[in-house]
Every structure is written in structure tokens, then in C-alpha cells.
Amino acid sequence: MRLGVLPAPLAGLPWRVLIPLTLLVCFGAAVLYSAAGGSLQPFASSHLIRFSAFLVMALILRRFSRDLVMWAAYPAYAGVLFLLLVVEAIGVVGGGAQRWINLGFMQLQPSEFMKPCIVLVLASFYHSLPVGMTGTWRALVPAGMLIALPMGLVLLQPDLGTALAIGFGGAVMMFLAGLPGKWFAGGGVAAVVAAPLAYFFGLHDYQRKRVLTFLDPESDPLGTGYHITQSKIAIGSGGLFGKGFGEGSQSHLNYLPEPHTDFVFATMAEEWGLIGGLLVLLVFGIILRWGLTVARRAPDRFSRLLAGGMTATIFFYVAVNLMMVMGLAPVVGIPLPFMSHGGSSMLTNMICIGTLMMVDRWSQRPAGASALS
Predict the structure, then answer these.
(1) Which residue has the higher pLDDT, 162 or 173?
(2) Which of 209, 223, 232, 357 could form a disulfide with 62 if both were Cys (CB 3.0 to 4.6 A apart)?
(3) Is the peptide bond before 20 cis (omega within 30 degrees of 0)?
(4) Nearest Cα to 317, choosing from 301, 333, 341, 328?
(5) What CA–CA distance (Å, rounded) separates 189 from 179?
(6) Predicted structure pTM score
(7) Which segments of the chain does DSSP mark as H helices, in order?
């Protein structure tokens, strides 16, 4: 999609995704404005400022060459892994979890960087692996170690949601790389067998309570089931057209927990109703469809894997958050991309968008240009 009325540098930008993305962020800012009681502070203004800053970053990332990105894959992975070790050593503790590094001007959550980074390093790994070896242990064991190391460090924080996101991204990359289906079937069986052991011996007490609450939230509506119960009340009370902008009682009367982060969709649905929810899903569908189109059109194996993995990362955020607020999944603390208030989440998803724009540019290089330009 090109806009001929703009100067050439601007006309060449991927407006097909930039326009719906900007509309989604602005809609999210409107919801955050309402969640703050009709004020731009403290959520909506910082949300828009972060998006603007990270959009510039994404547009800069779009200009990177393929050879530079491939070269940076393993150093970037090692750098984020080092930051995860720093978190274990001197990380800031908040809400019973040790996930952040205090930089003074902001709290950095390194685990967020690992979500796109695991996609990048596995895309580089499988690109360099001969296709004939995708059915051997050499395609499984090294990649499994690359996934297991950050997952283990993130679980120590503890942060089950981010660990699952890293594992999901790694599994998607293995699938896209063409590993045998029987390995995924075997992994599924192993997961079912290991689930009871993980529940009793691998999860913390509050994580086990979240699983039980997911299965029966009404069993403790004022305790562990409070989040899901109030979220479902907010979504259901919105009806078809919602209560009206700024009229959401669940969020304004502080019944709905975290109305500006994890449960921002419930805040929106109460005021905008089913129509607002379908609009949000439509825009996410446009963005994800564009990502899949970029992956299909990518010029080589590395680019295809990279674009497919980044699209899957955004999808994981969206799917898990929406399932969580509707009571279809346990509460794991994953925000809704481009709508929830939060710098780390916005940064991660804008890295994914910038990477997709970068691969899209690689696909549009002039005839005869170098494949590495």
C-alpha cells in the first residue's frame, strides 16, 4: 500500500500496517484516558509518547541489512541472557517477583527482550542448518538448549507467562523450520504426562491457585477468583454497544483490577461493548495478516522464519490476554499489545513490528540488488 501524495521516502513506508496500528494505539489511549477517570495522566500520555518513540525505533530498525541482522543474532541472544543473570543477582523485587533492573529513569524487564530474541537466534540457527538435517538430533538438541536456558532463568524470577511466551516462540520456530511432526506429537504427550508433576512440584503456591481459579473462579470470588470474576462482569455488562465512553462503572469504581494493563480489554468492552471488541479483533487481524503476508513473500529461509516468528509472538500476546480476561485461560500477567499501558510490552511488540517492516523491505529490493542489502 503506497500513498502517492506523499514524498517518496514516506510513500514507501508500509502504511498497510502503520495506519491500523496507529488507530489501535490511539483507541488504546482513549481507553486509558477513561481508566484514569478522564485524564491524560498518568496512562494515556505516556502510552502515546512511548509509541511515538518506539515507532521511530522501529523505522530505524526497518533500515537494517540482512547480513547485519544475521551477524547480531547470537550476540543479541548472549546479551539478553547476561541481563537475565543480572536480574537474578541484583534485580528489583516487586509484587513478590524479581524481574526488573533499576536504570534510574526506568525499570527494565530483560525477559521481554528474549521473546523476539529467541525468534532471531533460532531463525539464524535453522538458516545455517542444512535442510537435510532438520529430521536429526542436530535440529532439536541445540535449539532446545537455546530455548531452555532463558526459560529456566525466567521461571526463577518467577514469571510463568513470559517463560511460556519464550517456549511458544521457540516451538513455532521449530515447526516453521520443518522439524518432524512426530516430535511435536511426542512433546505433547510428554507435556501431558509432566503436567501433574509440574503442577505439584514446579509451580509456586500462587500459581497453583491461579490454575484452580481458572477451573472454578466462583469458588473464591473475593480472593483468587476476583480478577476473572470482575473482568467477566465488566465485559458482559457492556452488552452490544457498551455503557458509553467514560461510563464504565467496574473500572471507575475500582472493582476491576489492573484496568489499564492486563485487563484493559475488559475496560474497553464495558464502555464500547461487543462492537468495540469486534473492532479491536478486526484491527489485530489486519496486523497479523500483514505479518503472515510478509513471511510468505520473504526472499529466503532466514527472512521467512524471522517474519513468521515475530508474527507468532504478537499473536501469543493477543491470544493469551484475550483468553485470560474472558476466563478461558489462567491469569498470567500478559498485557494486550498496543493497548495496555506498559513500556516493556510496547517495546517488545514494536521490535516485532520493526522487524516485520525490515523483512518487508528486503522483499521489495530492486531487481539485481544484493540479497544482503
Answers:
(1) 173
(2) 357
(3) no
(4) 333
(5) 17
(6) 0.88
(7) 8-11, 15-35, 44-61, 66-90, 110-128, 137-155, 160-177, 181-197, 205-215, 226-237, 249-252, 264-297, 301-325, 343-363
Contact (CB, 8 A) for 176 and 305: yes
Q: What is the dihedral of CA 273, 277, 278, 280, to 10 degrees?
A: 140
Q: Do 309 and 123 form a contact (C-beta atoms < 8 A)?
A: yes
Q: Under a CB-based contact definition with an 8 Å cutoff, are residues 273 and 242 in contact?
A: yes
Which residues are CB-neighbours of 254 under 8 A, at least 6 positions away? none
C-alpha cell read off for 253: 469504581
Residue partners of 357: CB distance under 8 A and separation at least 6: 13, 14, 17, 58, 59, 61, 62
The closest alpha carbon to 347, from 13, 51, 45, belongs to: 51
**Residue at grid coordinates 500496517:** 17
Beta pairing partners, 94: 97
Q: Which residue, 52, 14, 16, is CA-closest to 286? A: 16
**How far apart are the C-alpha atoms of 56 and 192, rounded to whole Å?**
44
pLDDT confidence of 368, banded at 50, 70, 90? Answer: very low
- Mean pLDDT (the chain) is 85
Instruction: Tell me if 126 sits within 8 A of 301, measured CB to CB.
Output: yes
